[in-house]
Amino acid sequence: MSELLRTVDIIAAKRDSIPLSNAQISTFIKGYADGSIPDYQAAAWCMATFLNGMSPEETGYLTRAMIDSGEVINLSGVKGPFVDKHSTGGVGDKISLILAPIAAACGVRVPMMSGRALGHTGGTLDKLDSIPGYTTALTPAKFRDGVGTVGFAMTGQSEKVVPADRKMYALRDVIATVESIPLITASILSKKFAEGSDALVMDVKCGKGAFMKTPADARALAESLVRTGESLDRRVIAVLTDMSEPLGRMVGNFLEVEESIDCLRGEGPADVMEVTYRLTAWMLVASGISKDVNEAEERCRGAVADGSAMDKFRANVEYQGGILSELDAMNGTARARFSREIKAESAGFVSEIDAFAVGMAGVALGVGRDTAADLVEAMAGIELLRKTGESVVTGDVLMRVWAEDEAKLEAGVQRLDGSVSVNCNAPAERGTLILEEIAPE
Questions:
Q1: Residues 294 and 357 in one domain
Q2: Model-level pTM?
Q3: Which member of 73, 230, 386, 402 has the lowest number of beta carbons within 10 Å of its beta carbon?
């Protein structure tokens, strides 16, 4: 009996929890990408997938079909290994800016295709765009050359790479299927493997400021990513990290560039560096450069200590058009025009900082976006002068807030109201931010 490849039959099979074949999924994605399958049928299929899920094999077929829907960046002739890192999104998450030069300094080639801010989570491309002259709109040839000569390059998704995902992502956003784990998995992995990566380290964030709020949901996504990678013969390692409060002390585009530079100087916040070193260490393991993650972590620390990671960062800025002299002059001084201090109303200890509230305040200030069409402000943001566990007295400055106009400043300050909890008793010491690590067997 011939395989049922009619669109309606493929939708019906997924509706009835019948596993789809490679041919069925490939046919469906190809048809949706070229316009022969309309949005209403794709919406029905997405909802059936949301309700009934997919096996790792099906998710692998979907990922491959999305990759095949467009161009794939060719890194042949460039010496590998090629490993990338991806985060599910958080507040104050500037780790990509620090991790890529560290990994490159240790011998990993990092082809990094990143995204922009949407909702309460920040975007790597927006942070990089705040560097004078820096461009993330690289041609495939320029991207390839940067990976080869510098050791890493940072670019955005072009319209020709994984166009099926671009189209389906926009559809999912308006039909309430964004949370589908197989669709999230295929969306992430298709973009990462289309850029030329051999392996991927995933930072799956969990907590108030994360997309996945509970450890169970974060673990389910992590396992889906790892198992789907196995079905594609690609190594995916997932690290679950705590995003219950903002990472570091800076939230904002240029502010996070500044903090990233501090980190590469060996002067960064401990929470940022804990997560950065662990993720980068797994990149070394995934590449085969290191056998043991703990030994790899020490190697990463050495790349910061000897200045080689900072050298890679500056080489990349220059390669992608950034003006180092202007960046150096702006560091520590460039801020938006209007500012406000938020002060402690009582003495005690900071017991909690609500990452989601801080992220949404950033959106109001101009750091992030409510919609993809919104513009962002490079110099707007928030500085956290006190973090969880630190003592305060009445009148101490908890946060400094910046915006380019007074209305945005006021809106941001209002959203920060109640975001910092101060109690008379010191909270229990915060444990490790590394919640769990999942690697292929």
A1: no
A2: 0.93
A3: 230
